[in-house]
């Protein structure tokens, strides 16, 4: 496979290596189309990116950003929404223009149409130059759960119970965790020119091992990355 494996000494170093790859990309092309991810894993990455931005040598004013996913039936003002996460971890702190920031809408009247429109907008932007990814304990990328066909574009999915469990810390109770989400499809993700996958912590050991094995199967969504020509996996806390 083409996966490049980079072992970081700790979480901080993983975040710094990832941020420096994104900053280099922006320096090469001020009009970079970024693909962004949420979750606990990239929090340090965003902190690092914001702190580099605050040094004053880079600008996101011409860049664009598309996020991977969003829960269905949640408002952007909800603190557990990925809209809220992105504003607070990144967009409130940098000079990216509001009109260049895209996230799938979790509360659209016609959600199927919103999903198709999302892919069209990514394509119109010239596809994603660099996509950040995390990985679910079950190997999901974005919210593409095990069994998702590799050729699916942005779509609405039913969340796996293990995913709802893993994400309940962001909600008052398990009952408040949405049952569905809208996610960039695997096909959409695979069109990104470059991919950076972050893996941190022992909870991801099994997923890490399975990815490392090189086996490709729709039962383990992240395994599709073996077919992509430019993926860097930065990992820590797994071995
Ligand atoms: C979440 C997100 C993914 C994320 C993954 C891992 O549910 N939809 O984009 O990569 O699951 O999250 P975490 O980094 O919090 O372990």
From TrEMBL:
InterPro entries: Glc/Gal-6P_isomerase, Glucosamine6P_isomerase, Glucosamine6P_isomerase_CS, NagB/RpiA_transferase-like. Catalyzes the reversible isomerization-deamination of glucosamine 6-phosphate (GlcN6P) to form fructose 6-phosphate (Fru6P) and ammonium ion. It comes from Solibacillus faecavium. It catalyses: alpha-D-glucosamine 6-phosphate + H2O = beta-D-fructose 6-phosphate + NH4(+). Pathway: Amino-sugar metabolism; N-acetylneuraminate degradation; D-fructose 6-phosphate from N-acetylneuraminate: step 5/5. SUPFAM superfamilies: NagB/RpiA/CoA transferase-like. The keyword Zinc-finger does not apply. Its EC number is 3.5.99.6. The active site is at 69 (proton acceptor), 138 (for ring-opening step), 140 (proton acceptor), 145 (for ring-opening step). This is Glucosamine-6-phosphate deaminase. It is an enzyme of class 3 (hydrolase). The lineage of its organism: Bacteria, Bacillati, Bacillota, Bacilli, Bacillales. It holds the Pfam family Glucosamine_iso. Residues 19-226 form the Glucosamine/galactosamine-6-phosphate isomerase domain. GO terms for molecular function: glucosamine-6-phosphate deaminase activity. NCBIfam families: nagB. PANTHER family: GLUCOSAMINE-6-PHOSPHATE ISOMERASE. Keywords: Carbohydrate metabolism, Hydrolase. Belongs to the glucosamine/galactosamine-6-phosphate isomerase family. NagB subfamily.
